[in-house]
Design a protein that fits this description.
Blueprint: E1 2-6, H1 13-24, E2 27-30, H2 31-41, H3 44-55, H4 61-73, E3 81-84, H5 90-102, E4 109-114, H6 117-125, E5 127-129, E6 136-138, H7 164-177, H8 181-187, E7 191-195, H9 200-212
Parallel strand pairs: 1-3, 1-4, 2-3, 4-7
Antiparallel strand pairs: 5-6
The chain binds adenosine monophosphate (AMP).
Length: 213
């Protein structure tokens, strides 16, 4: 199965993408995770992306398009996958279409996880992330087993881009750019709407239902 998970920042699409990958043996392609890792390692890509990611702005299309295209041209390219956080603009959607065509792959569905803005701000400003295994928790909705620590034992952090001011900027970027993708994929008959308000398993159940329909 080849999927795109679409939704505002904080909609839980990262968590849902990871669950889908675990339970349906899919490869997770998360551009946010890849960019943060590149920044942490101080690579050329990381150096170019850092000023944008820090401010909650979208990294230029060319940079992410090249990153994804390169990932799909490797001999170990993903065959069955979940795209998480890409594409985020119409230009990226067109570039991704071209990448998939090049690889003779086609999409099965685009799952749109809908969550209202107020819920998103509340969720993201309480989010805690593990810098090691990328697992995320929430101070009240999904607390870690031991306060302040991930299941893997690493101390949890608040991602710099989860600070309230940055969260609002990320939401502005989402409404300005990423929402355009909804009519784009709807016109192709690929869009599946899912209500993203609720517990992790509850939302996962809804995703499974729209995929198995
Ligand atoms: P995420 O973890 O998906 O919310 O991504 C975190 C940050 O990485 C975003 O706020 C952007 O700065 C950057 N980013 C991730 N994916 C993309 C993309 N497809 N296009 C542009 N910027 C991106």
């Amino acid at each position: 199965m080849r999927l795109i998970l679409l939704g505002p920042p904080g909609s839980g699409k990262g968590t849902q993408a990871k669950l889908l990958c675990e339970r349906r043996q899919l490869v997770h392609v998360g551009t946010g995770d890849i960019l943060r890792e590149a920044i942490r390692q101080g690579t050329e890509l990381g150096r170019r992306a850092e000023p944008y990611v820090k401010k909650g702005l979208l990294v230029p299309d060319d940079l992410v398009n090249d990153l994804v295209n390169e990932r799909f041209r490797r001999p170990d390219r993903p065959q069955c996958f979940v795209m998480d956080g890409y594409p985020r603009t119409l230009a990226q959607a067109h570039a991704f279409d071209a990448t998939l065509r090049q690889q003779m792959l086609s999409l099965d569905a685009v799952v749109f996880v809908a969550v209202p803005d107020e819920v998103l701000v509340r969720r993201m400003s309480g989010r805690l992330s593990c810098p090691r295994d990328k697992r995320t928790y929430h101070v009240s909705n999904n607390p870690p087993p031991r306060p302040g620590y991930c299941e893997c034992g690493t101390a949890l952090i608040q991602r710099p881009d989860d600070k309230e001011e940055t969260v609002r900027e990320r939401l502005r970027q989402y409404h300005q750019n990423t929402e355009d993708l909804i009519p784009y994929y709807k016109a192709q008959g690929l869009l599946r709407d899912v209500d993203g308000v609720g517990g992790i398993e509850e939302v996962f159940g809804r995703i499974e239902r729209v995929l198995d329909r």
